[in-house]
Amino acid sequence: MKKVFRLGLITGVVLVMFCAGVVFAGDSLIIKGSTTVLPIAQKVSGLFQKLYPSVDISISGGGSGNGIRALIEGLTDVADSSRFIELSEVKRAVAKGVYPVPFRVAMDGIVPVVNARNSIKAITVKQLHDIYTGKIRNWKELGGPDHRIVVVSRDTSSGTYEVWEKRVLRGSRVLPRALVVASNGQVVNTVSKNRYAIGYIGIGYLNSRLCALTVNGIKATLDTVREGIYPISRPLFMFTNGWPKGIVAKWINLVLSRKGQNMVKESGYVPLF
In CATH terms, is domain 28-107+235-266 a member of 3.40.190.10? Predict the structure, then answer.
């Protein structure tokens, strides 16, 4: 039976009116946060700058937690996040007079990946749990080569890590010897260079240097992620301080437009429609 992914607070695409503000010369737009959402923001920014050439756009990663923190501190106009905002973050924001508004911009699957030369092609959530907590330490326990598994994980400010922690680790801690890296790109580079490594990345970062493992017999695809069939599916967000106006409104509107969602797909992620 297909398990349909449901998101209680955001059930559809929210469009912001084009008339919400006028763009003036010298306007700037700062976007910070998730390295998972980063390729989407970078892709859309190309079209955005063609439409509004006078706007100076700054886009950077750093992790979902850092993006939301920057929004709370007034250091960014848009916070990219691969997870929903936490209650503690909402309380800190409101205490500072900041009212985060979420916009779901895409869907994603967190995909466990190994080196392209690894013979392992499939894995289960339980096996992933046992690898990342240290119960399974050698590839031969999974039918692979007799070699210790090199575990690659994300840092705790990462929204990808937080979803992985909830869906895979389920409250357990990552084994101490795991190699912790700060971005999806670093996971890709590390695993692609180490035959015995395993990591996890957003679906948009998959490439020929890696082997994407099926999870519980299910491959991460546009359809399995969109329908919530893939076991580690999640929505991706952009947060603004209050209902967006002016250039921020135009940015959100473009991301949620047909053209913007086509760019989501071109970035390797799952569009909303």
Answer: yes
Six-digit token string for 246: 């002016």
With b for 16 or more beta-carbon neighbours within 10 A and e for fewer, the 89-99 pattern comes to beeebeeeebe
* Secondary structure class of 185 (helix, strand, coil): helix
Query: How many CB atoms lie under 10 A from the CB of residue 52?
Result: 17
Question: 19-39, pLDDT tens digit by residue?
Answer: 344 554 459 999 999 999 999
Pairing of strands 233-241, 78-81: antiparallel
- Rounded average pLDDT over 113-131: 97
Nearest-angstrom CA–CA distance, 183 and 187: 7
pLDDT the model gives residue 17: 42
In the chain, domain spans:
28-107+235-266, 108-226
pTM: 0.86
